[in-house]
């Protein structure tokens, strides 16, 4: 354990980003269930109470983690692109983040829309779709559907990956593991975009 003076210096030098980054490292190594304020303090070699200088509680820590995960998304501002390309790039960035940080990704995927890190991120997405020619209603509908698809698929993929890493696949599941392959995510995304274009944007009734 570091001497008291060193611990005090660590506490004073910590930032909110230091906490979120250390928490992500902890989650990726030991799983989401391992994240506690005490465990995080041990990671940072400081007293647990020192963390409360930067986060109010565990929920605020989760917000800090989600904020960092959003910043880690490989997104760029859309410039004159069609709405389908915006959706494709955004969901592809979610897929890449899930591959990079499978244990932490769930915190972003399941974060409520109205939390402080998430709301501005989603507002930028909707604004990009509107700039590409969609109405606000269309953009919001596409947001909800696209998010449900990406979050559902990738959370299940990440959990299945963690389980298969821990347990040997049985012969019963061997035949369906391809359904959780990331190649299926890309195929599903193509089908999703085609369906959204036909039904929500062009207004074609199924069967016509």
Automatic annotation (TrEMBL):
PROSITE patterns linked to this entry: HTH_TETR_2 (PS50977)
Superkingdom of source: Bacteria
Gene Ontology molecular function terms on file: DNA-binding transcription factor activity; transcription cis-regulatory region binding
InterPro entries registered for this protein in UniProt: Homeodomain-like_sf (IPR009057), HTH-type_TetR-like_transc_reg (IPR050109), HTH_TetR (IPR001647), Tet_transcr_reg_TetR-rel_C_sf (IPR036271)
Keywords: DNA-binding, Transcription, Transcription regulation
Record keyword Hydrolase present: no
Keyword DNA-binding: yes
Domain HTH tetR-type: 13-73
Residue range(s) of DNA binding per entry: 36-55
Name of the featured protein: AcrR family transcriptional regulator
Organism: Agromyces hippuratus
